[in-house]
Structure to design on (170 residues):
């Protein structure tokens, strides 16, 4: 509720603006999620189901978004800003920087599927905005929509076949 520029008291426009804003945010999440390789085979309705569970998060520079050894909270899709990915291998040595990531990059997708601890740290380099799909919301969506799980199994099977056909050389 507020007064508009002509001094009239308004309530409906505020509600409409909130609903439109919420719709746009969910639509953005749906559009964003369809670019996540794990979700490539999902249809619009299935993407909408997952998008309803997404949350936008903002992080200041230096914030640890993912801590090595912690249990996974969910999948992060960076929409703005950059992060560095580091790993602690020995308590007596400094962290090793493994990589950097930025807009469009996905982090932590395996946390949706297993309960293993995080294998690296992810730290905001500058102001970061990310879409978080929490693991508990994702698993709830799978229970309600088993077709999503079947499609994800197909993607994972394809990845496994590719990995076996093209083993990494160390």
């Amino acid at each position: 509720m507020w007064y508009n520029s002509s001094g009239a008291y308004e309530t409906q426009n505020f509600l409409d603006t909130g609903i439109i804003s919420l719709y746009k945010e969910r639509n953005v999440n749906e559009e964003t999620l369809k670019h996540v390789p794990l979700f490539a085979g999902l249809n619009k309705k299935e993407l909408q189901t997952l998008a309803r569970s997404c949350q936008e998060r903002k992080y200041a520079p230096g914030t640890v978004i993912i801590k090595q050894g912690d249990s996974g909270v969910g999948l992060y899709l960076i929409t703005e800003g950059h992060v560095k990915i580091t790993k602690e291998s020995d308590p007596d040595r400094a962290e090793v920087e493994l990589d950097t990531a930025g807009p469009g990059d996905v982090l932590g997708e395996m946390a949706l599927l297993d309960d293993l601890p995080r294998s690296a740290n992810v730290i905001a380099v500058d102001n970061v905005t990310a879409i978080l799909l929490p693991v508990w919301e994702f698993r709830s969506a799978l229970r309600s929509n088993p077709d999503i799980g079947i499609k994800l199994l197909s993607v994972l099977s394809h990845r496994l076949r590719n990995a076996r056909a093209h083993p990494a050389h160390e």
